[in-house]
Amino acid sequence: MACTSSFNIIKARFTAFLEENGHRKTPERYAILEEIYSTNEHLDIDSIFVKMENNNYRVSRATLYNTMELLIESRLVRMHQFGDKVTHYEKSFFDGKHDHIILTDTGEILEFSDPRIQEIKETIEDVFNMKIDDHSLYFYATRKKKLK
Amino acid sequence: MACTSSFNIIKARFTAFLEENGHRKTPERYAILEEIYSTNEHLDIDSIFVKMENNNYRVSRATLYNTMELLIESRLVRMHQFGDKVTHYEKSFFDGKHDHIILTDTGEILEFSDPRIQEIKETIEDVFNMKIDDHSLYFYATRKKKLK
DNA sequence: GTTTGTGCAAATGCTTTGCAATTTG
DNA sequence: CAAATTGCAAAGCATTTGCACAAAC
Questions:
Q1: Which pick of A68, A122, A132, B90 has the fewest CB atoms within 10 Å?
Q2: What pTM does this model have?
Q3: What's the pLDDT tens digit per position in A76-122?
Q4: Protein-contacted bases of chain C (C-beta within 7 A)
């Protein structure tokens, strides 16, 4: 990994989560966590499977799915449905909270962050008297053509 | 239908869309459109299938999926992935644009509308030089307990 | 009459599940 | 050593596809 020391913080968080919830600390779980944190991409299960295989780490798809559940519960990973049928996963620390723009013609995915979302969230919490744990915002867009 | 005259506007829009794009005006397509506009719920393919069957209208699931594509393209219907695996559809006229709050403990879905989303959208369009055609925003929340 | 759409049934592909073997605590 | 986890293969299930028949234009 590029930045080993900061990954240790993540590992420690995961360990804490596993212990608090009575889950076992298996090597597979840490290997999967590490794989997801080694990239900024939005990976699907199959990409993770292949990447790990290329690193000579065999893990079953079943374990991948199971571990994803834990990673999401522990908030170390976020889950996305960009429109194709597969589920994508991305690390959710060191990246700040961000949302996504999906370019509908090319399939490209851009990221952005806007503080007004937080404001909307607070308004909703007040008006509806609820606690918002998470949100997802996607914009579907196309690039404007440059004028000649 | 409760409000026949306003549904005629929708039907006319759909007709225009079909004609402009060289698609045929089949009774199945109008029947499906009508079914979706007869409720405020977020329906999945199977619910639509069953509801139509109860109305003694037989239509195949294949046709439902095909027609959904047209309805979404014509912007008469919007599509949602609330987190369970099925796709949900809802009419997109007479309801105004709105977004959704998903209560993660009960599965309930609430609707809201906030003008700041429009503002964020305009900022993004400027900053990234793109045209945003659509968005989807979901908040994942739980109700606050009442204090005794 | 051509071409497009429909319905059926089979195929697809992501995800889940059951279970024996293994590993963790 | 008891209980949780893994891996494998089979099962599930929403959606898609291929093709013969029917309907629109």
A1: A122
A2: 0.84
A3: 999 998 877 889 999 997 667 899 999 988 888 999 999 999 999 99
A4: 4-9, 13-18, 23-25
- A21-56 confidence digits (pLDDT tens): 999 999 999 999 999 999 999 999 999 999 999 999
Sign for the CA dihedral angle at A8, A12, A17, A18 comes to positive
Both structure tokens of A61: 């798809």
Q: What is the arrangement of strands in the sheet containing A43-44, beginning at the earlier edge strand? A: A43-44, A88-91, A77-80
Q: Which chain A residues have a beta carbon less than 8 Å from that of B128?
A: 101, 110, 112, 141
Q: Angle, nearest 10°, between helix axes B27-37 and B45-54?
A: 100
Nearest to A8 by CA among A40, A26, A30: A30
> Which residues of chain B have a CB within 8 Å of the CB of A114?
120, 123-124
User: Do the Cβ atoms of A57 and A31 come closer than 8 Å?
Assistant: yes
Tell me if A128 and B137 make a contact (CB, 8 A cut-off).
no
Phi, psi at B8, each rounded to 5°: -60, -35
Mutating which of B110, B128, B133, B147 best tests the A interface, going by the most A Cβ atoms within 10 A? Answer: B128
How many CB atoms lie under 10 A from the CB of residue A18? 17
What residues pair up with A77 in beta bridges, in sequence order? A91
CA distance A100 to A111: 5
Question: β-strands A88-91, A99-103: how paired?
Answer: unpaired
For residue A20, which phi and psi values (nearest 5 degrees)? -60, -30
Cα angle: B77, vertex A141, B41; to 5 degrees: 20
Query: What's the count of helices (H) and strands (E) in chain A, helices before strands?
Result: 5, 6
The residues facing B29 across adjacent strands are none
